[in-house]
Amino acid sequence: MPEGDTVWQAAKRLHQALAGQALIRSDFRVAKYATVDLTGRIVLGTSPRGKHLLTRFEGGLTLHTHLRMEGAWKVYGTGERWRGGPAHQVRAVLGTADHTAVGYRLQVLELLRTAEEQRVVGHLGPDLLGPDWDPGRALTNLLSDPVRPLGEALLDQRNLAGIGNVYKSELCFLLGVTPWLPVGALPVDRAEKLPALAKRLLEVNRDRPVRQTTDLHLHDLFVYGRALRPCLRCGTPVRVAGQGNGSQERPTYWCPTCQAGPSPTPGAPTRRPEYRSRRPRRAD
Question: What are the Formamidopyrimidine-DNA glycosylase catalytic domain coordinates in residue numbering (predicted)?
């Protein structure tokens, strides 16, 4: 699932493959840009911004893409067979003498003037993996709507950019609160730790092939994707429920014993009891 670390990796692959090279192939398979040809232009580089990708070309043009849930950029060597999906899922092809970058299932693909990039990313909060990272501003943004559930606030890219559904669930677990806890009810000490913890999780995973939030040998994640399986700390079955409205609803995982706060499931504990396991607890 594309989150800030996944997008950072995609940007790195694109940058290493294309930056400084002239395009010998340019193919946009969307109606709006079907006649656009960037052949001959030098690729200046690719930068991530939250979950957005900005590929810049000489002449002041930028290709803005967003992976959403199923999109991907794949890089292939000259003559290598494309394996990212069927041909009808290809939305963009950028080729140099040595590499070809193929964009599959890209739900957002837009060419714009580089000087106008703020139009598509200017609304984003501080980027957890970017040079603009500002923990104080991120926390202020999160606390600006104190009645909003923490999980929803973390997914709002206007607050801080880069957190997706996996990190939302994992961060709430590490903070010991449910994703439905109002942001304003988050204990002060944990609120102050949140920005640094979020940044640390994304930073340690941006170069890993498999995302990991635990320090346990056999398990990568504490709660995400572990519905009905024992909590790695206390043994209580992990629960899952939707959070959000309509098309924005996301499956959310939590431990009703280790995480204090409101729960959508009747009868879930509202306070945090002592752990019943001797498993080591990850530092918050």
Answer: 2-103
CB atoms near residue 216 (< 10 Å): 15
Instruction: At 101, list the tokens.
Output: 């970058």
- Residue 119: active-site member: no
CATH superfamily label, 4-121 = MutM-like, N-terminal (3.20.190.10)
pLDDT in tens, 115-153: 999 999 999 999 999 999 999 999 999 999 999 999 999
Counting every residue written for the chain, the total comes to 284
- Which position has the token pair 């449910």? 178
Question: Is 192 considered catalytic here?
Answer: no
Tell which CATH classification among 3.40.720.10, 3.40.50.80, 3.30.70.2860, 1.10.8.50 matches the domain 135-254.
Answer: 1.10.8.50
- Whether the CB-CB separation of 181 and 150 falls below 8 Å is answered with yes
Which residue in the list 2, 126, 149, 179 is annotated as catalytic? 2
Q: Which of 49, 51, 168, 193 is catalytic?
A: 51
- pTM score, whole prediction: 0.89
Which entry of 3, 91, 211, 256 is annotated as an active-site residue? 3
197 by DSSP, 3-state: which? helix
- Is 2 marked active-site? yes
Distance CA 125, CA 140 (A): 11
Q: Is 3 a catalytic residue?
A: yes
